[in-house]
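[job 4471] stage=fold_predict status=RUNNING
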Amino acid sequence: MAKRKLGSSIKLVVIAMLTVGVTNVISSTWPALAMSVSKADPRYQTTMTTTNQAGQHDQRHLVMGKHIDHVSNSTGFVQVFPNRRRQTFTGVGGALTDSAASVIQKSRPQTRRQILTAYFGAQGARYTNLRLTIGSTDFSTFGYTYAKQATPATFSLKPDDVHVSPVLQQILKQAPNVQIMAAPWAPPKWMKVSHRRDGQNFLVNNALKRAAMSAYADYLVKYVDAQQRRGVAIKTLSLQNELQASSPWEAMTWTPDAAATFITHYLGPKLKARHPQTKIMVWDYVKSDATQPIMMGFNQWTQEFYAHRGVHQYVDSVGVHWYAASLNAQMSLGNLSGQPAWDDNFNNLDLFHRQQPQQQIIATEAAQEKGVWLNQWTPAARYGYDIINDFEHHVQGYLDWNLVLNGQGGPTHAAVNPCGAAINVLHAGTPKEQLVINPAYYVLKRVSRDVQPGTVSVASTTNRQLDHTAILQHDGSTRLLLENRSSKVQTVQAVIGHRAYKVRLTPHSFNSLQLPKQTAKNLKTPPITHTPTSLKRLSRFDNHWVTPIYRFLGLQD
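[job 4471] inference complete, writing structure tokens
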């Protein structure tokens, strides 16, 4: 019996020695694995959420970290500085167009609930912003205004009652604090010089009649009045969607001088008298200086507009879209290849912020054009890229275009302009009805949850070619958004204070890393050679246009 006890004791000692030996081997050979094994210190444990091309959607996984005393250029890193605060965010959202509302209305009740919960529910994207259209647009099922004749008594929101208003009321029940902006595409045709609501082309005078300025100001204020009576508060009123574009659907153009006159003498005073809480947004168009022939670009238009005294008391923001306009080189290539084209001139946002630091910059529209893009990764990647770079260049809010579209990228009533959406409903209202939640939805969902109103953009830097931005949360923690647009895994350390978290970014992925509240001073950042913006834009141009052409010709794998 004594021998058996002694033998058992020896076995236990040997097992213990072997265990220690194995642990030491793990620690010396696979330090990351050893870190995962040791969970004694919860300070170095966090989570990352990933959506990628491989089919992971909003997947959470554990990330372990460690204490460090310096940051080294020998490994890839993204360093976050929560104490270097920048712009405060207003939130994320989308547009309730007549087209979107019609698809939602036509869908089965269960599908309708799924859509609204996905966007506005506590377990969904938690959208906090909504864009409405004042009258019909390219994404409406029919053309309409709220006043067919030049008499105030004829104004009525009745056209909205067909699709938009019922869905809007359902949204407000689920998200009563949602912030609403509204934008017109065109006034009643009798107010325009052309006597047409559609823009036709740049050779047509698509301006508002000078004699109609007072009537049009009344028209817009009446819209805000009517919505208020329905319990809908309009926080922001855009002067005009795409005010330097003569599109083949509803459109109107404004020169800086005409816009300043209209706002300071007509719309501004009337709106302030009745709705002092409602502010005016201008531009609401692309970021670049290349728009359409004889039209102005972002820099010239905004500089000339804000040079007018008096506009600042009524205007508090500019809106920007992600599209490339007609004169942009990428648009020319897109038209030739049948691919969508985007405007990546983020430097203009920096210039505007330096010139008008008190004015907000809001990204008001984004949509993947030239197709429906069901279940495809390309739109999701583009949203990630555009959002991160917008946030790195002073943008305070982000709104997608149509909340929902059908299986043809519509419906539309004017020119055929099929677009992608984060959510599609195929065969709505039929036995074949199918709800499609695209990868882009999960990118927008994650951004919206991380960028709630009042969160703050903070500085970050990296020694790798990696899109990144950081958001300080209300509880003092930080969310680090990382997009890997390459076809290879990227491994980097996310550094905050003296903590470093090793993250593995899967190919073609959008990631949100949760970082704890910083408790130590920032470590010194090693010298980083930053790629000039012009070369970054050239690289993006190459990735989007040259590489696909080479692959098509069989010149590149």
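[job 4471] summary: The first strand starts at residue 45 and ends at 52.
[job 4471] exit 0
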